[in-house]
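R.M. (postdoc): so does anyone remember the format we settled on? I'll just put the C-alpha cells first.
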C-alpha cells in the first residue's frame, strides 16, 4: 500500500484555477503528469488537484518502518506547498495532506457539508491545514480554530512539527 501527499484547491473561476494550477506545476517538486486539469463540479466550483513528485508521490506505507522513514520528510513537503499557496489568490479553500483528494471525491451525500458554498467532507471543517478565503471564513461556525494565513485568507494552522514555517 502507498499513501499520497496531495492537495485540493477550490477556485473562484476557471481563469483563477488555470493560473493557480500553472503556478504549482512550475514548481520543481510538483508532479504534473497524470494530474487532472482543473475541472468544474455540479456547484460550479473549479477544482485543482496538486501532487508532489518524488517521495510525496506514492509513499510506501505498509509497515511501521515505512511510516517511520517517511515521517521526517512529510512536514517539509507540506510546508513547501503551503508556502507557495501563501502567494496565491483567487481560491475559496485549499487543503494539503495525505490523500486529501480521496477524501473529497469519496463522499456520500450525508458526509458532506457546504463551507462557503463549497462541498467538503464534514470531518475537514476542523482539519489542520484547511485554508479558506475571507469570504468563506464568514460562513465558518468555529472561527476560533482559525488564524490569519495570508492577506485575505485564514487557516487552521498545522501543528505537526513545522510551525517554524508560519509567518
Amino acid at each position: 500500500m502507498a499513501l499520497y501527499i496531495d492537495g485540493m484547491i477550490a477556485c473562484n473561476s476557471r481563469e483563477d484555477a488555470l493560473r493557480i494550477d500553472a503556478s504549482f506545476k512550475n514548481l520543481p517538486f510538483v508532479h504534473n503528469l497524470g494530474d487532472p486539469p482543473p475541472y468544474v463540479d455540479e456547484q460550479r466550483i473549479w477544482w485543482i488537484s496538486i501532487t508532489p513528485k518524488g517521495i510525496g508521490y506514492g509513499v510506501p506505507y505498509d509497515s511501521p518502518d515505512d511510516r517511520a522513514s517517511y515521517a521526517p520528510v512529510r512536514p517539509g513537503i507540506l510546508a513547501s506547498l503551503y508556502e507557495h499557496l501563501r502567494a496565491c489568490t483567487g481560491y475559496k479553500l485549499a487543503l494539503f495532506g495525505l490523500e486529501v483528494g480521496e477524501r473529497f471525491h469519496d463522499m456520500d451525500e450525508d458526509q458532506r457539508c457546504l463551507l462557503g458554498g463549497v462541498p467538503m467532507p464534514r470531518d475537514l471543517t476542523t482539519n489542520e491545514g484547511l485554508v479558506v478565503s475571507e469570504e468563506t471564513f464568514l460562513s465558518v461556525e468555529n472561527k476560533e480554530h482559525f488564524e490569519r494565513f495570508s492577506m485575505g485568507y485564514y487557516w487552521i494552522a498545522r501543528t505537526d512539527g513545522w510551525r517554524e514555517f508560519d509567518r
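R.M.: ...and that's the designed sequence above, right after the C-alpha cells. Also worth knowing: Residues 81 and 96 are 8 Å apart (CA to CA). Residues 2-165 form one domain.
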